Amino acid sequence: MTRSPVRFFQAIALFMFAIGLAGCRNPAAAPHTSEATSGSSPSASAHYTLNLPEPPEPAIAIPSSPAKRPYRIAVSLLTRDDDFYITLEKGLREEAAKEGVQLTVESGDKDLNKQINQVQNFVAQKYDAIILCPVDSQGVISAVTLANNAHIPVFTADITSNGGKIVSYIASDNVQGGRLVGEYAAKNLLHGKGEVAILDLSTVTSVQDRVRGFKQAIAQYPGIRIVADQDVPGAKRENALPVATDILTAHPHINLIFGINDPVALGALSALQQLNNKAVMVVGFDAGPEAQNYIASGSQLKAEAIQYPHLIGKTAIDAVVKVLNGGTVPPKIAIPTGLVTQASFIKK
């Protein structure tokens, strides 16, 4: 049997990547940033600081008066093992203290049964409101319905439920973020022409929004073609490497790759490093600390949309207080995203 040269080269790339991970993994870091890209992550953070202020809170969520009493608000997070949710929880706690409400925060730890049990306890303890970051948008419906039947308002943050009554869903504007990245890539990196590949996860709603925004921006430039749009299983870094390697081998004239989150974008960067390909550029979404280091240092990772989890947490608390005070909020509150490029950093 003749061995496929693509698979043979991919196997070599995977082997080399595994060696790099074995020597560079930081088990104490959050999942989005724990696996080092091939070679050492640039220490740009020692020399640069991100100069990108948090946008203002959407006015529609801000209560017109302080909390009428110290409301009891319960939260079940998706996880605490992630920089995003650590920052989101900080936003929740800071705003709860400011508003003078009582806050209980637990983590579902990506375990649906655990999260359902938490909601059952919240209902039994008769909290005034519940904020959920669902572990499973479909599986959490029964818990939402339980709270609905107990007349406890349910809000969702970052991720929402596919059913039950949700008063308001507070999350990043992923379409806008994808559009920001696509416009920057088309205008500033590709200068209106070139070939683009997307490393996708098409089963996830937030990713669908990111890709839709990216494609909307790219569509304004007839000289740019999307030649590949392929899913990365689990949107994981270790899976992005072989997918990117296959695409780069099949489409040798690609100019740019869009990765739908940090792990995928950094996996694509690893593939380029393993292939010794210095021509292809990468853009992504999330802009966590490691990605920021690569962008600031002038690597092939050129830009990423950045979310503001602190603002999501703050806005969620304010929306709850506004509703409990007797006000109304829209069913979806979109938190704007920003764009991180090398120009976003200033020297320390």
Automatic annotation (TrEMBL):
Q: Where is the major localization of this protein?
A: other
Q: Where is the Periplasmic binding protein domain?
A: 73-327
The cross-references to CDD domains, in alphabetical order and at most eight, read:
PBP1_ABC_sugar_binding-like (cd06322)
From the UniProt annotation, give the residues forming the signal peptide: 1-22
The record's Gene3D superfamilies line, in alphabetical order, gives: 3.40.50.2300
Pfam families with a match to the protein in the record? Peripla_BP_4 (PF13407)
Ranges for region Disordered: 28-50
Q: Which GO terms describe its molecular function?
A: carbohydrate binding
Q: Where is the composition biased (Low complexity)?
A: 34-46
Specify the domain of life of the species encoding this protein: Bacteria
Q: Which UniProt keywords apply?
A: Signal
Cellular-component GO terms for this entry: cell envelope
Where is this gene product found? Cell envelope
Record's family?
Belongs to the bacterial solute-binding protein 2 family.
The name this protein goes by in its record: Monosaccharide ABC transporter substrate-binding protein, CUT2 family (TC 3.A.1.2.-)
Organism this protein belongs to: Chthonomonas calidirosea (strain DSM 23976 / ICMP 18418 / T49)
